[in-house]
Write a structure and sequence with these properties.
Blueprint: H1 15-26, E1 55-57, E2 64-66, E3 101-102, H2 123-131, H3 134-143, H4 151-160, E4 179-186, E5 189-190, E6 194-197, E7 203-206, E8 213-217, H5 223-235, E9 243-244, E10 247-248, E11 252-257, E12 265-268, E13 271-274, E14 276-277, H6 282-295, E15 303-308, E16 315-318, E17 327-335, E18 340-346, E19 377-383, E20 388-392, H7 393-398, E21 399-403, E22 413-420, H8 447-450, H9 470-476, E23 486-489, E24 493-499, E25 509-510, E26 514-518, H10 521-535, E27 539-544, E28 565-577, E29 608-612
Parallel strand pairs: 11-14, 24-27
Antiparallel strand pairs: 1-2, 3-6, 4-5, 4-6, 4-19, 7-8, 8-20, 9-10, 11-15, 12-13, 15-22, 16-21, 17-20, 17-22, 18-19, 18-21, 23-24, 25-26, 26-29, 27-28, 28-29
């Protein structure tokens, strides 16, 4: 360690002195007009000219720091950045160029603006168009074969300035090469995205939270090796389909490990994967050996080859911390549609609102969760085929990541993920997947192109004795939600409802030919409201075997088995009450927030909707809002025979509904 702390390099002028000298050199020499003498006013003397600055080099990071004028360096002791209140993670004071190459965002492409004049054939039509809402305008444009891109922006511009021309949506261009994108939170808001094109020698970034490190390596896998790997992936039968509950995960996996590591497994969110022999895929074994030589790890959690079959396949927000992962390496083996983003965001406390009793539910205290604050960052990695990125333990502690849906991305994307974990977090249990999974994307309904799926479906039959799984309902479109009770959106309306509870505390009731259903705006009340006030479409109603009333289908496989669902036909949305119990046709509002660390209060009741079957809506005009919890009594059930279906319900019988 050198004894002298003070720098022996030539003294530098300060930054302010250099800027002042440059301004003085560039300033034109013009004569100064003589001013009229005025009474002298006492003013503070100008600061004296700055002398040469003092510099010192940190013994820990070897970076040069500009010393304050009153700082004295002790030449007999080590000197570090912390002695002047600095951090070794900051850029050196004599480094004037930022790391990486920042490229400005290219201008958005020119698009043909959405024009509402195509619907204004007559003055009467123009007045009608001005009264239309967004879903009605979208349907009208589609009926004429016109584009609906930028419709919301067009409506906003029309509301702000009714005489202005229609404007087009400004879309942000997706990067075409490997790019590091980041934005920071300042003054309680997220700033603009800043793109950094990753150079050929790669990029290393240290996150603000928990000091995690993200590294990107360009051209990690050669074109020749990728061709062999892609051919192996297309021909292998080792891929397996896993499920979240009873719904298939939107991607397929192939977990591999050497025969010298028997019992290798990986588990997350109720999924357990047991590894197959990596010797069955020699090219994957060569890749694992290459990563072992590069990073010095044995990958004791295995090599997980993940296939995203198209742009609809995705992976939700999560952190790879179930087995104490210390290093994760992801190599992009195939990405024919160009780079696809991986998003990172800081972990924040879970603030889910439970609409039954108003409490915040959390399964456990997650490490690294903190409220958002200034200086936090969100990151996007756009990785090309053949490139590689790594995440260490710090990234998993402070951040969570996802691979979102990109419907326009029509190509397959294959990623090899190598994980090194802690031995004490070994996964147990049998493999929960289905073998011989296909790499062809499943058939999906295009909601953007075709709109909602209303009414009776050909592959869903009504009646007793015909029961469906949740997986079947999602696959056929009968109910397109894996967990929520309402399938639909605010724009297109509700398509179906799954009745799995009948809670008197929530003022729900079920009379077979009618039902009263309680929901929040986020969970489906907004889409049900759309059916009531705008499109008038009926909804498909499915009753679950977990429903605790006489109209539930029987439990075929026991209480611990997944629920079965019976299709009970189409129901009309007849009326709605707000959270105060008043009859309303206003759009439902968001549920009230829950303050953490304070005494919870009983929440107000959520919006309630009455769905009827075979009942005229005008007969429900005098229906009072429910004031007290009520349960519709069930008819007596004979132990020898199933419950008989109820008789026809007269419209006037609903007048006394509690």
């Amino acid at each position: 360690m050198p004894a002298a702390r003070q720098s022996s390099r030539p003294r530098k002028a300060s930054a302010r002195a250099r800027e002042a000298a440059a301004d003085a050199a560039e300033e034109p020499k013009t004569p100064i007009k003589r001013q009229k003498q005025t009474k002298a006013v006492a003013t503070p003397a100008p600061p004296p000219a700055e002398e040469d600055d003092a510099w010192a080099q940190c013994d820990a990071c070897q970076k040069w720091r500009l010393l304050p004028k009153d700082h004295v360096v002790d030449e007999g002791k080590p000197w570090t950045c912390s002695l002047v209140g600095r951090s070794c993670d900051e850029r050196a004071d004599d480094d004037t160029e930022p790391m990486g190459t920042v490229t400005p965002e290219p201008p958005p492409p020119t698009q043909h603006p959405v024009s509402l004049k195509d619907l204004d054939a007559t003055p009467e039509d123009k007045a009608k168009v001005m009264r239309m809402k967004c879903p009605e305008l979208r349907d009208a444009l589609r009926a004429k074969g016109l584009s609906v891109d930028g419709l919301k922006e067009t409506l906003q511009a029309r509301l702000l300035n009714p005489t202005s021309n229609d404007v087009a949506r400004k879309k942000k261009n997706d990067p075409k090469v490997t790019t590091f994108r980041k934005r920071e939170r300042r003054n309680g808001r997220w700033g603009p995205w800043v793109d950094t094109v990753v150079p050929e020698d790669g990029l290393m970034y240290r996150t603000r939270r928990d000091g995690g490190i993200i590294r990107i390596y360009r051209n990690f896998e050669s074109m020749e090796d990728r061709v062999v790997l892609q051919a192996t992936v297309a021909e292998t039968t080792l891929f397996r389909q896993y499920k979240f509950g009873n719904v298939p995960e939107p991607r397929v996996h192939m977990l591999l490990a050497p025969e010298s590591a028997p019992g290798c497994a990986y588990s997350y969110h109720g999924v357990t994967m047991r590894a197959s022999s990596i010797e069955q895929a020699p090219c994957v074994k060569l890749l694992a050996d290459k990563c072992t030589e590069k990073f010095g790890k044995d990958w004791n959690v295995g090599v997980d080859v993940v296939a995203y079959r198209d742009g609809y396949d995705s992976c939700g927000w999560h952190a790879d911390d179930t087995q104490g992962e210390t290093l994760i390496v992801a190599v992009i083996l195939q990405s024919g549609g160009g780079p696809r983003r991986v998003q990172f965001r800081p972990k924040t406390p879970d603030a889910k609102y439970d609409d039954s009793n108003g409490i915040t539910r959390r399964s456990k205290d997650h490490v690294g969760e903190r409220p958002l604050q200034d200086g936090d960052e969100e990151i996007e990695l756009w990785i090309e085929e053949g490139d590689c990125y790594t995440m260490d333990r710090g990234v998993q502690i402070g951040y969570e990541h996802q691979v979102p849906k990109v419907p326009s991305y029509g190509s397959r994307r294959v990623v090899a993920i190598l994980r090194e974990g802690q031995p004490r977090f070994k996964a147990e249990g049998a493999d929960t997947g289905t073998p011989n999974a296909s790499l062809e994307p499943p058939e999906r309904w295009d909601y953007e192109k075709n709109g909602g799926r209303f009414g009776k479906l050909a592959n869903v039959d009504e009646g007793e004795g015909v029961y469906y799984s949740r997986e079947h309902l999602c696959a056929t479109g009968g109910h397109n939600q894996a967990q929520r009770g309402v399938s639909g959106s605010l724009e297109r309306g509700a398509e179906s409802v799954v009745v799995s509870r009948c809670s008197s505390k929530m003022r729900e009731a079920d009379g077979v030919s009618w039902l009263r259903y309680t929901s929040t705006r986020k969970q489906g009340a907004a889409s049900l409201w759309r059916n009531l006030v705008t499109n008038g479409q009926p909804i498909r109603v499915f009753r679950s075997s977990k429903l605790a009333n006489a109209w539930a289908p029987p439990l075929l496989n026991g209480e611990k088995e997944p629920a079965q669902y019976r299709y009970d036909g189409l129901y009309d949305i007849a009326c709605m009450w707000d959270d105060a119990g008043n009859r309303s046709v206003k759009e439902p509002s968001q549920a009230p927030p829950v303050s953490r660390g304070k005494k919870r209060k009983a929440p107000l009741p959520m919006p309630r909707t009455v769905a009827t079957r075979g009942v005229r809506p005008d007969s429900l005009q005098a229906l009072p809002p429910p004031a007290t919890p009520a349960v519709v009594p069930a008819p007596p059930v004979s132990p020898q025979a199933p419950p008989a279906p109820p008789g026809a319900v007269r419209p006037d019988s609903l007048q006394a509904l509690p």
